[in-house]
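Hi R.,

Here's the chain you asked about this morning:
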Amino acid sequence: MRDSYDFSKSVKNPYASKIKKQITIRLDEDTIEYFKSMSEETGIPYQNLINLYLRDCANKHKKLNLKWA
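And the predicted structure, written out as tokens:
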């Protein structure tokens, strides 16, 4: 290793704004199984599929159609 490094020509990470944040979320077992089965079909990890679906909902400003019984 060097004694010192020159960072004067470094550039800002262009992906820094897209860093993911880890959270805890409670999901129904059948919801998890749904995304896991999609994961097997597509080869995309199920957590990424959930993120992609939620991102799509947010981008399209989808509203939940909730009706209480």
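The chain has a mean pLDDT of 92.

Let me know if you need anything else.
M.
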